[in-house]
Structure formats: C-alpha cells, structure tokens
Amino acid sequence: MTNITPASAPFSKPSQKPDDPRFSSGPTAKRPGWSVKALEDACLGRSHRSGPAKAKIRKTLELMRELLGVPGDYRMGITAASDTGAVEIALWNLLGARPVDVFAWDAFGKDWVVDVIDQLKVPDARSFEARHGALPDLSKASPTHDVVFTWNGTTSGVRVPDAGWISDAREGLTICDATSAAFAMPLPWPKLDVVTFSWQKVLGGEAQHGVIILGPRAVARLESHKPDWPIPKIYRITKKGRLDEAVFQGDVINTCSLLCVEDALDALQWLKSMGGASAAVTRTSENFKVLERWVEETPWITFLARDPATRSPTSVCLSFCDPDVLALNEEGRAAFAKRVSGLLDKEGAALDAASYRDAPPGLRFWLGATVERKNVEALLPWLEWAYGQAKSELRAAA
Ligand SMILES: Cc1ncc(COP(=O)(O)O)c(C=O)c1O
Q1: How many angstroms is it from 299 CA to the middle of ligand 1?
Q2: Domain of 174: which CATH number?
Q3: 90-109 pLDDT, tens per residue?
Q4: For residue 51, which of 1, 210, 282, 334 sits 20 to 30 Å off, Cα-Cα?
Q5: Among 354, 203, 211, which residue's Cα sits nearest to residue 283?
Q6: Minimum CA distance residue for ligand 1 atom 7
C-alpha cells in the first residue's frame, strides 16, 4: 500500500482492448461466438403448450439436468420472474411448517430476509446477516429449522466455500438461491432440497425465466403442509394438495418466452460442447486466477471478500485500499470508484464494472464461463490505466 501513483505520472493508455468488454454480473456476456442466428430454430408464434414448444422446454430441462448432475428424483421446472420468481415460489409454498433460519450477506440474500420476516412473517424466523465482504456464522443453522441462503452473494463476491455446515440428518429443508453459482460452482445435491437460478448468469442466456429444482423432501413438504398465507397463481405449484407434476414436465405455470427457451438451449448446447459443467467450473476458476494474481500483486486494490476461501470466482468484487482513497469520505470513495468504472466503460475496456448500488464502492467483474480468459488478461492494463487517471485527478483536486 506504499506505491501511491504520483499525479504527474499516470499509467499509459494500453493499446489493446478486450475483444469482449462485457463484464456485467447480470445479464452476463453471451457465450463466445453467439449471434442471433442461434435463435433461428426458436418455436416462435406457437402456443407454449403445443407439442414442439413443450419438446423444446423438456429438452432444455433435460440438458440442464444432465449438465448439472441433478439427481433423477429431483423435479425441475421453469418459472416466471427469473430467479426472484423461483426463490419466492419456494418461500411462499414451503415455509411456515417449522422455524426458519435465513442467512444473508449480500443484497439479494437480504431480500429473502425481508420476504421471510416482513412479508410472510414466518413464526420463529431468525436472520443471520453479515456485512458485504463477510459470511454470517453458518454454524448457527439449526438442523430442525428450514434454512434459506444464497450460495454466491453476487453483490458482495462472497460465497459459501462448501456445504459442510448443512446437516445430513436435518429435519428442515434447505432452500438455496444458486443464481451466479449454478454451472460455475459444484452444487452438492444431497445437501440441497431446493435450488433456484436464472439463465442470464453463468449461461449468458436471455433474462426472463427462473429454474426451480425440488428434491424429494421438498416435494414431501409441499404435499403435507398448507401455508397460512395466500399463494398467487404465478407461484402455485400444487393442485388439490399434491405437487402439480405437469409444471415439472415442461408445462409452465403461465406463458413463457420461447425465444428465451431457445437461447438457454443454445447456451446449454455450447456448454456441453465445451465439456459440460466441470469445464465451465474450470473456465471460471481460470478466469478468476488471472484477476486474483493481479490483485495480489497490486497494492491499491483488494477483494471485498476477506477470507480467500469465500471469494466468488464469478462475481468478483474489489475495493480500493489506497490510503489516499480510504481517507476520502463515503461520497468521495464512491465518486472515485465511479470514475474508474466510468473510464473503463467510456474506453470500451470493461462495461458495467461498477459495484452494485447497495454494495460498498468498488469494482465488480463477472468472470463466469462465457467470459474468455484472454479478455480478463487484456482488462488488467486498463485497470491500471483507469486507476492512474482517477488518482491523478484526485491529486490535482486536493
Ligand atoms: C444471488 C442472486 N439472487 C437473486 C438475484 C435476482 O435475480 P433475477 O433478476 O434473476 O430475479 C440475483 C441477481 O443478480 C442474484 O445475483
């Protein structure tokens, strides 16, 4: 932290830009080589309940099951309203039978706290929250309670390192929001009773739909427990007290976008051609290593995630640790971070790299499987340059 860039000598402007500057954490970069041609075979202008449309939806679900290694006795369905829709379907249908422990360490996890405690008012609900950068004490999860958590906190760049803290002998259900983790981090199915995600994260698919995956214990809960609160039609996955199996066999609750289905199918086929989910995990972690090495060698930037074991390799959140920046007030630090991300954006070196609006000021880069490593490598000199520029301006204004 001693190498403070002098105002008179900003880093020189690099000559080569990343071929693809899309580092946004959602929607994320499309897969390499994607063009609208990939959608030519979409089942457009047809009913989503027609034979060909259902065949597409089923194929998408089957490929997702294959690539994610979802056990045969877990149900998979497509929902409206993206990952939020899928998570809320789980919360609204399953909770209320026992106390709930909600763990939150990013903006989205905190939304689920609001759902469980303020909206559903589940009796005996407890929340365990941590500031951006840390994990709450997961050992507090009671095996007799239901547990709601986010595998990867997209806005803090903090993920759970594993699921060792979830009891194999649990009586409650685990409900895991795995958006920005699914396809990039292995998911231990026996520990997870409900998993949700959306297509616009690691798959780089078009946004609109969520995916909900229900294990046998979640299905047993659905069929034995009737929540005390109303369940809007868009969230209804039971019929006459039984699981509505059709919803998990390609019969969506309401009209889905067949264009988005085609796009998800294209992404899955690409993933399969690359070697499947394990190849996606490897691509992601190789991208992460490039940035991690640079952060370790660079005195003015650090990970928001304090414990290396919890650092997300998909949504990487960075903070400025330059003492001159840390000496600024909150507004000044936010302006500095905004200036750096603004320069990257203006130059077309990295688009949408500002930290999430509720997160501490800094930078955030999506490094999931659709991002090419050479683009992460090409980004590094631009980061040096943008920081140097912003730092010179800061010095000049002092
Ligand atoms: C961890 C997590 N949960 C939920 C959401 C909300 O997702 P969606 O916009 O797909 O509803 C996001 C979005 O980035 C997320 O990162």
Answers
A1: 32
A2: 3.40.640.10
A3: 999 999 999 999 999 999 99
A4: 210
A5: 203
A6: 83
